[in-house]
Amino acid sequence: MKLHCIVEDAQTARAAAEGGATVIQLRLKGLPTLELVERGRPVEEAAREAGVTFVVNDDVEAALALNADGVHLGRGDQGKELARAAGLLLGISASSVYEAIAGVEQGADYIGAGPVWETPSKLDAGSAIGLDGLAAICEAVRVPVVAIGGIDASTAGDCISAGAKGVAVVRASADARGVRAAVDAAAF
């Protein structure tokens, strides 16, 4: 749970794993399931070769077809029941305490909380919750919280200090080693 690197291709997945990613999350928004599975196979292979957890974003059927370890779903995404029934690790997004509690009630194994800061990689992410919002979510739930949104090596430690068990990065996946070092330093 320490470092989720959200990627679109196998090259980035390999670099992230080499840098210390503990989870590789495939995110290719808006693709039909079959195309997602086809484009996701090399990412799944890279994650398996590296021995890290492999999660698919938004598509339970693709996660199952790719033999993923888990799936990460947004608040409004369908498939939570199928994910639980299939034994997939289930992450659910939350931007408030209420949404985090609802996610846990829906069976989340972890909560993806954010955006902590504004982020250009997800334009529909909503308003930033800040470190105070992150801390409130961490205090409200008993499952691990993974912070997301505008996080890089300079801010990852602040998220851990606020109570998150890990961080998720998109743009900073290229600097996985630096982000992982910041997470490890803050965790002790």
Describe the protein in words:
With 188 residues, this protein is of the alpha/beta class. The protein is built from 8 helices and 8 strands. The protein has helices at 10-18, 33-50, 60-65, 80-85, 97-105, 130-140, 156-161, 176-186; strands at 3-7, 23-26, 53-57, 70-73, 89-94, 110-113, 145-148, 166-169. An 8-stranded parallel β-barrel has the order 1-2-3-4-5-6-7-8, surrounded by 5 helices. Helix 1 (10-18) packs parallel to helix 2 (33-50) and helix 5 (97-105) packs parallel to helix 6. The longest helix has 18 residues, at 33-50.
Descriptive tags:
188 residues, alpha/beta, TIM Barrel, eight-stranded parallel beta barrel, 8 strands
Label the CATH architecture.
Answer: Alpha-Beta Barrel
Q: How many separate domains?
A: 1
- The CATH topology is what? TIM Barrel
User: How much helical structure, as a percent, in the residues?
Assistant: 40-55%
Structural class: alpha/beta
Could you report the average pLDDT, rounded to the nearest whole number? Answer: 95
Element-level helix/strand string: EHEHEHEHEHEHEHEH
Provide the low-confidence segments as ranges: none
Radius of gyration (CA) equals 15 Å
Just give the CATH class. Alpha Beta
How far is it from the N-terminal to the C-terminal residue, by CA? 15 Å
Based on CA inertia axes, which overall geometry fits?
Answer: globular
CATH homologous superfamily name?
Aldolase class I
Number of strands: 8
Q: What does the largest sheet look like?
A: 8 strands, parallel, barrel
Identify the strand order in the major beta sheet: 1-2-3-4-5-6-7-8
